[in-house]
Here is the input.
Amino acid sequence: EKLGVDGLWLSPVYLSPQVDNGYDITDYRVIDTMFGSNEDMYRLIEAAHDKNIKIIMDFVANHTSDQCVWFQESRKGTDNFFSDFYIWQDAKPDGSEPNNWGSSFGGSAWTWDEKREQYYLHYYAAEQPDLNWENPQLRQKVYDMMNFWIDKGIGGFRMDVIDMIGKIPDQLIDTNGPKLHDYIKEMNKASFGKHDLLTVGETWGATPEIAKQYSNPDNQELSMVFQFEHIGLQHKPDSPKWEYEKELDVTALKAIFNKWQTELELGQGWNSLFWNNHDLPRIVSNWGNDGKYRLKSAKTFAILLHLMKGTPYIYQGEELGMTNYPFESIEEVNDIESRNMFAERLAAGHSENEIMDSIRRVGRDNARTPMQWTAGENAGFTDGKPWLAVNPNHEEINADQAMSDPDSVFYTYQKLIELRKQHDWVIYGDFKLIDSEDDVFAYLRTYQGKKYLVVANLSDEENQFKNRQ
Ligand code: GLC
Here is the structure.
């Protein structure tokens, strides 16, 4: 409330065995007891609403947990109502998997099920079987669940890996399948389209053209999508994220933002703006300077992003300048992606040190350590035992400290949000990148005859700003 945000996106809080941090859902209508009860959730929705904050729920429509009753029924055979809710295929004549797809978390994307005597597809963990969107009954069940939460008064959905629901394994099409947009249009009509809600799709492979398809208001699909082209700069070209780039290529970053800012024109599409989420390392550690220049660096990234065109998303703790975590051993890591990668790369001959280095730099748990409220025990987050250790730097970096320090990162975020609410140029102004020094990211926003210049130095050296044009 004090920060000024108008929405709160919660990572999945549904009943889940937590194989993938809640992205493996057993029952979409039930809140996991680790977070509270359904009643608690309804109270949260209401209490937030009273403060003009809407709750955005994370909706995972690509897969469920293998504990979900649909999957349990589906496994039983080929002739029940749920049989085709998932993607089942026979083994090849030699007994091998139907195709060569690998799971995002390592190993094959197909697991043999003894009960049904077929393979099922799981693009993520084996405990996350992929749903079969070809099945109209499944689609209706998903829309019903969305309506269940809409009726409870939520403000919208963040849609997990939504670009994968149109996959066609037989044709080796995983993302952006031919029926994807038909499904989203149908979903829009059957659920959120009838209400004033925010919807944002997670689309790793989106180009501006694709983003327009989703977010052009005429198409009646989603409000916007998360595109990840800038995030791609964290690793070497065509390499897994573990092969990370030590330095940010600012020139490339400028080119990518320029493209998205100018191509997603008002009325034809809409950008989402973010540096961080639960899957990404902390911006101030990854591309900034989390030592000597932590405050300046965190503020620079905040300013750079918030004055662009689009809807900004702040990931918890980013507004305090929270940093990556100094993981020393794999025992301290919970994330399935990092743990599986550790085992795979160790077996492939990489040194433990090298692997831990990449986890410290780009591993997902960097973002998932508990929120730092106070300098006290467990950073004031819990009296119990948190699922990950609290960052030892909570003694200096915490919300209490930030509130009492007028120069804190928090107040920069607060000011930026205020600016966005007060000035239409931030929302509607044209964007023009300025050709300047390599490490200087400068742009001009123009609105109703007025010009606003934003200049950010992304190096830890003093810099000049000159317009080279
Ligand atoms: C998305 C989520 C990520 C999760 C994956 C599978 O990418 O953001 O956390 O592991 O989907 O659901």
The longest helix spans residues 136-151. The chain has 13 helices and 15 strands.
